[in-house]
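The authors assume throughout that readers already know how a fold can be written as discrete tokens. For illustration, here is how one protein appears when written out as sequence plus structure tokens.
>
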Amino acid sequence: MKLNIIFSTCHLEAEIFDTPTGRAIYDAAPFKRNVNTWGEEIYFDISVYSDLEDDASAEVSVGDLAYWPNMPAFCIFFGPTPASTGKTPVAASAVNVFGRLLEVDREKLLKVPEEAIVRVERLD
């Protein structure tokens, strides 16, 4: 499963994992939202509800796509967040990692402004 994540400044392709959260988010596409930023994380609300999975953690990697149940939100991690102590991103609290960007272009992602519109569409 793959998703296309489209901003006015760039687009990203992502592999979606075959997990309960990954399938639910893939099935919810297409959708359009306004984004928020938190350090080097872009996130936006999503109308998908999923429980935390057994491997849920606040520890994530650059390029990870994660579901944060508190909002609930779709999160794109591409560098340190305010919760980080180094260069590795850290989520605000436990998240389900449900996918991964096929390529991470930090410079393009840094140019995505707060409140920008994102469209998420299925690729296959």
In short: The longest strand covers residues 90-101. The two ends are 6 Å apart (CA to CA). The beta strands are 2-6, 11-16, 31-34, 36-37, 41-45, 57-59, 64-68, 73-77, 90-101, 117-122. The mean pLDDT is 96.
